[in-house]
């Protein structure tokens, strides 16, 4: 077999290139337009090496074929059949790409990592939101006390015989910005819910305005099931305390030891807490302690306050 010369290319010997089929040679002529220039530019062979057949031994011939395959993008399918599209060039190398299986595996791995880390990120964001709102209500209520004293005298002399609603409306309501207030009768009756424009809510219970329960998310306040009484023990159980809402006390006129930490202002509930330490808050009382299994969990806000208004890393509940 001979390949006819183009632009003066000499005939190649039959014995030298007998392994090259006619289809290959035809495609070479048709697609690569073989010439001296293409031999140098496309295949990297100098003209003298093509002309000098003695240099074309088998290893060189095979390398020549491989160079032609790579440079011209020849796909040897069904007898060296070449497939070209309008977007390909015989002198343009194809770019590597991911297979569908590799893409699906990668997406699966990303999904697994996201499923593992996303809940923790969401909870971290919730913690920060609760921390900020706890500090805000603490500041808002204590500022209101200072303003109210200007009009109503020292807090120790405020009328403790008033109902929760009457007490709040007289001593607090004029000095805070709220959205609305409602009264409801669950948990013994006499409850007042104050809704704020930032989406939080504050519930006050008992005459004299002693007990307060703060909801960082007002949507978690269900006025029909705010708290329940255990039929066996008679204790008030607050399932959501320390989780969806937090207990505060304000007892300015009381002179008893059990509320000594709550006489100065609006403070996290520390009823009967002694001393105010992490260990005492989390272990010492089965009813008020901030731990799983406690019926009331009233000291959880005190635990967060003790930690600089930051929810501890080992906090026993997931706030929401």
Total helical elements: 8
Through-space gap between termini: 84 Å
Order of strands in the sheet with most strands: 1-2-3-4-7-8
* Weakly predicted, low-confidence segments: 1-20, 31-51, 71-88
General form: elongated
User: From the alpha-carbon coordinates, what is the Rg to the nearest angstrom?
Assistant: 42 Å
Topology at a glance:
Elements: H1 22-32, H2 36-41, H3 47-51, H4 58-72, H5 100-152, H6 164-171, E1 180-184, E2 191-195, E3 201-205, E4 211-215, E5 228-229, E6 236-237, E7 246-249, E8 267-268, H7 278-283, H8 300-306
Explain how this protein is built.
About 35% of the residues lie in helices and about 10% in strands. It contains 8 helices and 8 strands; from the N terminus they run ααααααββββββββαα. The strands form 2 sheets. A 6-stranded antiparallel sheet has the order 1-2-3-4-7-8. Strands 5-6 form a two-stranded antiparallel ribbon. It is elongated and about 105 Å long. It is α+β, with helices and mostly antiparallel strands and about 325 residues long. The protein has helices at about 20-30, 35-40, 45-50, 60-70, 100-150, 165-170, 280-285, 300-305; strands spanning about 180-185, 190-195, 200-205, 210-215, 230, 235, 245-250, 265-270.
Features:
8 helices, disordered N terminus, six-stranded antiparallel beta sheet, 320 residues, two-stranded antiparallel ribbon, 8 strands, alpha+beta, elongated, single chain
